[in-house]
Design brief:
Blueprint: H1 2-38, H2 47-52, E1 66-73, E2 80-81, E3 91-102, E4 105-114, E5 126-131, E6 145-150, E7 156-160
Antiparallel strand pairs: 1-3, 1-7, 2-3, 3-4, 5-6
């Protein structure tokens, strides 16, 4: 009995530590995003918006939307042109699929690799997850949001929707942004991550 209680206690301590670490990662993500936007050399904001920008508006952190998903590699996919908000034609390849449950329903999203970007050493393990959901055009940017991932070492991967961010064209029309493919639409609200930019007309 005593041994079982010790194991249970250690498990609880471990879960609390994991949650604390995850929350810190999300807050670090938010801080880094805000810092990038207030620096003239790195911000996508117009000069007018930069003058008044202080912080992004984020949903409250919700660990329910930090999900351990099954990662399924899909080799031998054919490269394709991902549609963008302009006539730019970037080449992507579907790298794999993430399978997960959310609110007792099963979902599948595709993850992609930008074929030009992976030529750079710092992005060779980078995976791109664009998605749309039922908050778009309401509380989030109408064109969907993105999540950055890395190729996992195992057959699972953490999808943290708390780190969902807006494409640059949500802030400035001069940018060309990928449009999330239709198959990456979630018929559910994802009320975490970055909210819509108030001065941008959806």
């Amino acid at each position: 009995m005593k041994h079982c209680l010790i194991v249970l206690l250690l498990s609880c301590v471990n879960l609390i530590a994991q949650k604390t670490t995850a929350i810190k990662e999300i807050r670090d993500f938010q801080e880094a995003l805000n810092k990038k936007f207030v620096i003239a050399e790195t911000t996508p904001l117009t000069s007018e918006d930069l003058e008044v920008f202080t912080t992004h508006e984020f949903f409250a952190i919700n660990m329910h939307y930090r999900i351990k998903a099954d990662f399924i590699r899909t080799p031998y996919e054919t490269p394709f042109i991902m549609q963008t908000t302009t006539n730019r034609e970037p080449i992507y390849v579907k790298y794999g699929e993430v399978h997960f449950r959310l609110n007792k329903k099963k979902y599948i999203l595709n993850v992609y690799q930008n074929q030009a970007l992976i030529e750079q050493e710092e992005y060779k393990n980078y995976l791109f997850l664009p998605f749309t959901d039922l908050t778009n055009g309401k509380t989030t940017y109408g064109g969907g949001r993105f999540i950055d991932l890395e190729i996992p070492e195992k057959q699972t991967i953490i999808i943290d929707f708390n780190k969902a961010y807006n494409p640059y064209c949500a802030y400035n029309n001069k940018y060309s942004c990928p449009i999330p493919p239709e198959e990456n639409h979630l018929e559910i609200e994802i009320p975490v991550g970055v909210k819509s930019f108030k001065r941008h007309k959806l």
